[in-house]
Amino acid sequence: MEEQRKKKQRKKRLVIGVAAVLLLSGYLYWQDNDLMQTEYTCNSPDVPAEFDGYRIVQVSDLHNKWCGKDQKRLIKAIREEQPDIIVLTGDIMDGNHPKVEPAARFCELAVKIAPVYFVPGNHEAMVKTEYRRALYDRMHACGVIFMIDRSVELTREEAAITLTGLESIRKADYFALKQISDAQTDFVVLLEHNPTDAKVFLQSDADLTLTGHTHGGQFRLPLIGGLYAPDQGILPEYDGGAFYDAGHMLIINRGVGNSGFPFRVGNRPEIVTVTLHRMEGGETT
Description:
Elements: H1 2-33, E1 36-44, E2 55-59, H2 72-80, E3 85-89, H3 101-110, E4 116-119, H4 122-126, H5 129-142, E5 145-146, E6 150-156, E7 159-165, H6 173-181, E8 188-191, H7 198-203, E9 208-211, E10 220-221, E11 225-226, E12 228-229, E13 233-234, E14 241-245, E15 248-252, E16 270-278
Parallel strand pairs: 1-16, 2-3, 3-4, 4-5, 7-8, 8-9, 9-15
Antiparallel strand pairs: 2-16, 6-7, 10-11, 12-13, 14-15
Helix pairs in contact: 3-5
């Protein structure tokens, strides 16, 4: 009898253990793959009336990830947002395990939805030249617009706003501030991968800055936020979401993929949609 009782206990523990592993695996899979669509509105008196309702979809930190066969889930999510432009804020390729196809194929499909603008991240910089060239060649071929230390004007009817892209504000402080200050339009959108120097962005002349890099702190806890971000370390101040200062708005995209840590906790992947809204008077909010 005692032996049978012990057998039942062992079997029960085994069943509970297997169930716990399955539940944990399912949770981590959901956390890694259930794509969120996060919406923000950028209210500013500097938004031209013609750009009221203008929609910008931001994708960041893809890191070689496949979102369904042929990027079907990611493309579907972007198409549903009906963007006027799509911006990619770096690390679409993973430098630790470089692959061309996931990012290249995504770009080839995304440009069919809306014009695509790209700034590179640290992972594009760290890969071998052959991988970077192979990816960039395909991106150029399908019409992705590279925004490496340059500005363009986006027009709608008779109005325009400025879009500026930076490869790295750490090496281009002067360029960044000069390009933004020299903008011929009232409203400026800045694209940059790394938000570590967030205070520079929030004190610049950019009305809206879009960044990524942090992966949302990888593991997020209620009331605490992200636990770790590259370049910021433990309990980063700028981990993800929207930040405001003196009429400037900074958005840190939590990204789509992973690098280093193979999973996320409390921090599902996201794409971000920002809708521009003209308001009368006041500061950007």
